[in-house]
Amino acid sequence: MKLITPQKVLTISILLGLLLILVLLISIAIGSVRVPPFRSIHILFQSILGLKGAGNETERTIVLSLRLPRAILAGVVGAGLSVAGATFQALLKNPLADPYILGVSSGAAVGTIIAILLGLSASSLGLPLASFLGALLTILVVFYFGRQDGRIHPNTLLLAGVIIGSFLSALIMFFISVSQKEELRTIIFWLMGDFSFANARSILIILPYILLGISLLLLRSRHLNLILSGEENAVQLGVEVEKLKLISYLCASLMTAASVSVCGLIGFVGLIIPHSVRLIFGPDHRLLIPSAALIGASFLIASDTFARTILAPTELPVGVITAAFGGPFFIYLLRTRKVIKTL
C-alpha cells in the first residue's frame, strides 16, 4: 500500500477539485442552444456575486435554471455512485461489485414505474419519492435475509440481493409490457438515466444523503483499510467489524437509492471509477474515497454534457454515454487482469 499522508490527500483533493470546477464550467458553457462560452461563465459569476447585467433573460435562464442545476446534480450523483461502488467492492471483496449489486436499482425502478403508471410523474416529488421508497424497502428486505446469527455474511447478502433483484426485474418487465406507449417511453428513458428534469429541489433531495454517506465512510476509512487485510486482523486491532460493515453497507445503499431516485439507472460509474482511482492512487480509502467522489463527479458531468450535445437538439440518455466509455475500459481492465490486482 502506498504511503498516504494528510498533506498528500489534501493536495490531490485540491487538484481534483479544480478539475471538477473546470469540467463544471465547460458544461455550463456549451449546449444545444448557443450562448457564447465566456458570456455563460460571466452570467454564472455575476449570479454568484448577486449582480445582474450579462446576457439577456433567455440566456440567464438557460445558464442558471437549466445547465447549472443539471451539472450540479450530475456531479452529486457521480460522487455518490463512485463512493458507493468503492465501498461495495471493498466490503464484498468483489471487483465486479457496483452500487446496484444488492438490488437497490431494481427496487427503485419498481417504485418509479408504479408512480408513472399511477400518474404521479407530473408531480415534482412523485417519482423521486416513489423511487426512494422502493429502494429503501429493497434494502430492508435484502438485509433481513442477508443477516445470519446477528452477523452480515457478504456471500449471503450478495445472493439475497441478486435473487431479490432478479424478482424485481421480472416485475419491471411485466409493468413495461402492460404500459401504454407514452408511459413506455418515460419508463425506458428513466431506466437509462436522465438529468433533463434537474432542478434545485432534486439537488436538495439527494445532497444530504450523499454528503452524509461520504462523510461517514471517510471517517471510517482507516477501518475499511484494516478490513481489506482480513476481518480477523481488524478485530484484533479493535475494529467493530460487524458494526462497521452494517454502517458502510447502509451508507452505500442509501447513497445509491437517493441517486437512482432523481435520475434513474446510470451504469458503469460506480464500477470503473473506483478501479481507475485504485490504479492511480492505490487502495487506501483515506485517499480513495475523496478521489473517487471528485473524479466520479467530473466524469458524470462530462458524460451528461456529451449526451445532451452530441446529437443536439436530440438528447441521449446519459447511461448510453457512460456505457460507451465504461464498457471498453472495463474490458481492457479484465484483459490486463488489473481488476483483480487492485483489490
Descriptive account of the structure:
The protein is an all-alpha fold and 343 residues long. The protein has a single domain, classed as Orthogonal Bundle (ABC transporter involved in vitamin B12 uptake, BtuC), CATH 1.10.3470. Helix content is 76%, strand content 1%. It contains 15 helices and two strands. Strands 1-2 form a two-stranded antiparallel sheet. β1 and β2 (151-152) form a beta hairpin. The longest helix has 36 residues, at 57-92. The N and C termini lie close together (11 Å).
Protein traits:
343 residues; mainly alpha; ABC transporter involved in vitamin B12 uptake, BtuC; two-stranded antiparallel ribbon; 76% helix; 1% strand
| Shape designation | globular
Classification by helices and strands: mainly alpha
On the 0 to 100 scale, the average pLDDT is 84
Number of contiguous helices: 15
What's the main sheet like?
Answer: 2 strands, antiparallel
Write the layout of secondary structure elements.
Blueprint: H1 6-29, H2 37-48, H3 57-92, H4 104-117, H5 126-146, E1 147-148, E2 151-152, H6 154-178, H7 181-191, H8 200-219, H9 221-228, H10 231-236, H11 241-263, H12 269-281, H13 285-309, H14 318-336, H15 338-341
Antiparallel strand pairs: 1-2
How would you summarize this macromolecular structure in one to three sentences?
By secondary structure, this protein is mostly helical. It has helices at residues 6-29, 37-48, 57-92, 104-117, 126-146, 154-178, 181-191, 200-219, 221-228, 231-236, 241-263, 269-281, 285-309, 318-336, 338-341; strands at residues 147-148, 151-152.
